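Subject: sequence -> structure tokens, single chain

Hey, anyone have a minute? Need the predicted structure for the following. Not urgent.
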Amino acid sequence: MARRILPVLALVFAAPVAVAMAARFEVRDLFAAVAAQDELLSGCGDVPEAVALAGELRDRALRIERYMQALDARKADIAAAEATLRERLVELRSQQNGTRSRRDGATAAIRDDIQRLIAVYDQMKPAEAAAILTNLPPDFAAEILMRVQPATGARIIAAVEPAQAALLTAQMGARSVRNR
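Reply:
Had a minute. Here:
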């Protein structure tokens, strides 16, 4: 007989849980004892311990209810904060992408400008290019010499005064060492 009762009891307890899960109710609400204080004290009003226990249970229920309300308020605050953070993250990512594209555009523009400058020096006569490069800062002049065609760079360095050519060559070597 016990073997027949167990499946029935399991069904009795599992059915409300399944209904609650399907309806998204709290399972604890289905099994919660619901009784008014008057019902709890019926017949026990003359027992001081019962009255005190009922009062204590009522106070606990009120504290639990306040605590649950505070938790719900916290959940709402957390959900609002998460939504704000998600919006801010999307905004920051779009700003980052905008900054990256502007930086990439500026870098490409600088590269194009440098290539045009190098092409100009490649087309100049070595003596003219040497006269201009000797008046530029040595690191900038060395950068230009590193980027022009090797044959053009050799002719330009040959047209520069030996002391200045040594300085430019040293700058070019230092740049090569830094880039390793």
